């Protein structure tokens, strides 16, 4: 028996006596009520004390003589932190420090840029010029404000709706367009499907399609930062649907046990494609799940840029200083379709979507606040939108005309010396294209020109 299990003579006696009771019960044939009554009598003879406790890993576990199941939920739901009300007015009871004018304007400009980028790139896909797109409409505050609260040294492991984080870090509109058009200038050489961005320069790990794989990976990255004693943390983003994946639970437990500086950021936008949260879990959202794993958690208004900024800034401070994981649940709403492959009006009411657009729009809400401070006006708004649209049109024009990667580049960048089986596949592909060029896309070089 492990030494941590027994800490006092009284506890030892309790365990020995109860072990004897267990042996008596197990070695007797069942005789209905007589055995039950004898067992109860033996329990009474143990001189039971509710002040006794077992010292189990994690602390002392007190005993009780009453059957008491832990409630499946609390009567009161977890509160949601916010700074601005739905109209963009600062809540008087909130004690957050207001951000500077420069940062406030930069946050707004970036949210507008993200919104416009999504709108234009989505239209380009609808025109058949690219193959796929996913917007972050309604979630602009989550993207931009959370990124603003971080250091560029912090490492991001995103899902697929965090391109605003990359935008904030300096990924250009031209780089976004290059990836969507899969041209030769794309850092990924056109091998990833659209929206699967990645940037070594910006500490933004490439998006992976399978849900949740980035969560345990983020814990591993955070562990490396801890070993190297870096003044940085890891942030991994995911949606409410991903919390039903095993990687979510494994990742949280992994992080809590290893005590690593990682922030789990859940965008609870109400829908996992067509599955509503009411069919995803019975718990009080996501924040409550952190407690089960021993992780400090907070619920935040995901449509309030200032609340997101505050919460992320504080979470980062705790994660690095105390070397522990944090779970953030941001309540928001996916105003757009899941992707260009989806029509969300098939499974949710248009009225619901329009209500969120009108009453809880994160951009108009934040604009009301900066205009109320005298930091923004209609002329600035017009100038910003005109400039961003011009940049987008130019980026699309350049990306669309750019040369495509050679098809044989598919075999490069994995092995230093290409193995014979890949050499054979490359020869086979090249020969097939030459024989049947009509079956392959035009505008692609067969092999790289060296």
Q: How would you sum up this structure, described in words?
A:
- This is 3-methyl-2-oxobutanoate dehydrogenase (2-methylpropanoyl-transferring).
- It catalyses: N(6)-[(R)-lipoyl]-L-lysyl-[protein] + 3-methyl-2-oxobutanoate + H(+) = N(6)-[(R)-S(8)-2-methylpropanoyldihydrolipoyl]-L-lysyl-[protein] + CO2.
- Keywords: Metal-binding, Mitochondrion, Oxidoreductase, Potassium, Transit peptide.
- Heterotetramer of alpha and beta chains.
- Residues 109-405 form the Dehydrogenase E1 component domain.
- By secondary structure, the chain is of the alpha/beta class.
- The protein has three domains: 3-62, no CATH class; 101-401, Rossmann fold (3-Layer(aba) Sandwich), CATH 3.40.50.970; 407-439.
- 43% of the residues lie in helices and 9% in strands.
- The protein contains 14 helices and nine strands.
- A five-stranded parallel beta sheet has the order 3-4-5-9-8, with helices on both faces.
- Strand 6 and strand 7 (275-276) form a beta hairpin.
- Helix 3 (101-126) packs antiparallel against helix 12.
- The longest helix has 26 residues, at 101-126.
- It is globular and about 85 Å long.
